[in-house]
């Protein structure tokens, strides 16, 4: 005998509430957005004028009209690195590896995206960096690029980039030139020249040190000569007699001395005989 399955009666109006619930979930998902740390967002009004340039949304949970879209971008300081082929002042091609730190202006994020698009690094930042690097590097020789002018070049590139990006809603805070690659023959020649210059400086330092020591000894000798001259001029016969008497008294006190005074010597000083 077959077992009769229990009947399930779907509640009246249940399908309507299911559809309504699904629609509510979709609506809630479309109408909310969470902006993460270090990010900012601007609303794209699908039924309006596009990007809302008046307000930038910060970190946290936000509501919006479900037919709009929130465009979220990083607004904290970021960096990009690149290698550029540029020409030095004498026309030699060099490769410059550099890093640049930048950040969009938070309050003007909507204006930045509206005027330059979401990919504003490629549209705005890259051309500015390349133009500034070519302009600045083109003022220097390969030797200056390779050795002594690195800090100056970084500052000049930074100033030029900042000038190009003025009023463009994008701030550049620092430029770092990490490496300058020259053709091997040029690099070896520069390194050899720098080594020779260093050796020359060391040689000049040793010569200078020797001259200073000779000058010191000359001054010392002249000082002693002057002192002796002054001393000789101050030693009168009377002072010599007094010093001779003092010396005689000191010798007479010595246990190792045998002193016999007989008459007097020249200048009235006693004659002292010892067992030398």
TrEMBL record:
Membrane spanning stretches: 12-29
Cellular component, GO annotation: membrane
Location relative to the cell: Membrane
Highest taxon in the source lineage: Bacteria
Membrane topology annotation: Single-pass membrane protein
A Pfam family annotated for this UniProt entry: Band_7
Domain Band: 30-194
Keywords on record: Membrane, Transmembrane, Transmembrane helix
InterPro entries hit by this protein: Band_7, Band_7/SPFH_dom_sf, Prohibitin
Protein name: Prohibitin family protein
Organism name: Polaribacter pectinis
């Amino acid at each position: 005998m077959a077992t009769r399955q229990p009947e399930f009666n779907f509640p009246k109006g249940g399908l309507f509430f299911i559809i309504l619930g699904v629609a509510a979930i979709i609506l809630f998902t479309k109408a909310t957005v969470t902006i993460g740390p270090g990010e900012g967002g601007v609303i794209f009004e699908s039924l309006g004028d596009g990007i809302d340039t008046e307000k930038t949304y910060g970190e946290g949970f936000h509501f919006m009209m479900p037919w709009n879209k929130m465009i979220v971008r990083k607004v904290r300081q970021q960096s990009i690195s690149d290698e550029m082929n540029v020409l030095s002042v004498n026309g030699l091609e060099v490769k410059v590896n550099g890093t640049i730190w930048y950040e969009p202006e938070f309050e003007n994020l909507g204006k930045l995206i509206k005027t330059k698009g979401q990919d504003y690094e490629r549209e705005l930042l890259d051309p500015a960096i390349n133009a500034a690097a070519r302009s600045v590097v083109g003022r220097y020789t390969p030797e200056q690029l390779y050795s002594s002018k690195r800090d100056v070049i970084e500052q000049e590139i930074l100033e030029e980039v900042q000038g190009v990006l003025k009023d463009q809603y994008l701030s550049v805070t620092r430029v770092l030139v990490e490496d300058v690659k020259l053709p091997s023959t040029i690099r070896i020649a520069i390194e050899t020249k720098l080594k020779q210059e260093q050796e020359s400086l060391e040689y000049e330092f040793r010569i200078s040190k020797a001259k200073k020591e000779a000058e010191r000894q000359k001054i010392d000798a002249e000082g002693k000569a002057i002192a002796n001259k002054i001393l000789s001029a101050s030693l009168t016969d009377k002072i010599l007699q007094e010093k001779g008497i003092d010396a005689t008294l000191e010798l007479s006190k010595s246990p190792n001395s045998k002193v016999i005074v007989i008459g007097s010597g020249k200048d009235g000083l006693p004659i002292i005989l010892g067992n030398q």
